[in-house]
Known about the structure:
The chain is mainly beta. 4% of the residues lie in helices and 40% in strands.
Amino acid sequence: MVNNLGVKNSLAMVISAVLMITGCENTTIESNMSETKPLNNDSASLFTESESIMQLEQNSRRKWDNPQIVDLDNDGYLDVIITEHAHAAKILWNDGGRYSESKLLISGDTHGIAVADYDGDGRIDIIVSQGGGGGTNPRLPIRFQVNPDRTLESLGVYSHFERSRGRAVKFVDTNNNGELDLITSAFPLKSQKQGGNFQYSKNDSNEFDFINYLPHAQWLGYKLLVADLNNDNDTDLVFYGGKNMIALLGANGLEYQNATKELFGDLTNISHTSSISAFDFDNDGDLDLLLTRAKHQFEGQTYFDDKRRRFAFFARGNKMDYEDLLIEGDLIIENLQMAYPDFSVFVGANKSKLTFGDSDKHGQKDFQLTSLEAAGFPEDTTERGLYIGYIGDGYWRIGGLTKSPTSAVIHNVKSTPKSTQQEQLPVKLLENKQGVFLDVTEQFGIDVSEQTSSAAVADFDNDGWSDILIIRNGDSSQANQQIFYKNINGKYFELTDNHGVISAELGATGQGAETFDFDDDGDMDILFGNQRGRWHLFVNNSNALSKNNFLKIRVGNSPRQNSSAQNAVLRLEACGKKFIRYVGASSAAFSQSFDTNLHIGLGSCSTIDKATITWSNGELLNLTSLTVNHSNKVGS
């Protein structure tokens, strides 16, 4: 019998076994079954991971996109929405710089999330794009409202929308009338011959009317960037993610003009783009683009950490036919994750089912098996699932077939299993030259050829130039240090190692990153998640490391027409530099934040020469009497 067959859910017992077999080389690196600590806690590092400020679950799960940053209850502090794919979307409330335990927003298969007060009633609206069960259960977006007392009201689904395998959902004031319209994207159903990218416009009843199908990029081209690419105060769209990119410029009224060739030329064929960050790296007053790139995980992958003797695998619809593993001692498996509909783990020749003693099928499972408990390997493995068996002389066999993603890490492997060679997909930096984008990646010192999942851009050290943090897909068999490029006066980027942003959990690959000043101290912090991993909050130490100035501007609605602050643009000149920032800026492929706090590092500069805020309806406000090193509120 293997119903409880050696399954040791006690983390202490597993840790003890790991340490007895491998030795205590560095427990924070060796296993995430111990309390996760930052691998670099040097006070001179730019960032330090915090485990106490935000109540983040210490359990690895699947993720979806970036976190969303928004002051949901209008108390002046930035709250957070996170999505655990196919499990739940949750809210973390900011209580004066520290976060409460998460509150459930919605359970189930949720994808992109957009936030803003789109009906003008003073309450934040949340629109959640729901998945479609792999095409078997296409669904509709659902809407929530947040009250000042933090209660949530579900206002139901948008029943007049077209059902879809929902992906992105983002607010855009398409016709510049101060009313937020809606763009959604989806993996199109076979019946949706015109694609799954939909344009909706808000009517006088605060409902969204269908306007048009929008062009779609080839294959997985449902990721979406919303940004003003040609500096005309009319928000533009870029669909990406598959074989190419499609650029749509805002035109008259509700129209978009396909300007892909004009903006990108041959660059339109950049494939497998995982995220796009729109930011002004050279302070010339327009938005440049940083593209991270990674293949969607459809194919099986294997990883091996030769130093620490760990083997990791990922499978999705492909047969798990790995070479037999020579393992010292018992079989120790960390962060096994299996997705619907395949959750079965069969042990030994008699295919006894492993049970885990709880009903949570969506997260990390750690367990240990002895050779006696797992003796033999079955001849018949036709039933979908993961098969584990001890076949003698220290060798173990892992195999099977699952339709949905399955992954795990195996410890103490004495043999040398093969690792999958990953295709090189270099990060791209595209400079905006009067509305035409040029590839300047090599010229500006960006040299990242491995696959990467996301990026967060901000002036992290407040020296007046926007820096880049890149989240790598990484190696699932080991801890991963992320990639940090410091902006050197807008002339080039310098790779910097001593930044401290490292994720220690095993069995994970990179996901989405966001930057925000959660504690309102004037420097930009980082929250990012790992696919099949955890969320990580990294606190910025730049205030302690430098005396650079900064400026924060919190943007409200426009003073005359009460237009939403979403997509409002700040243009500022100070000490010979031009700066541009816009509300809602993010690398998120599917979601849209509503952080109305715009942050600019100023270095030694303390004088603001000129500053304006322009809302989506064209309403412009000249900003005077701005106070450096403080938060300045503008608008209503």
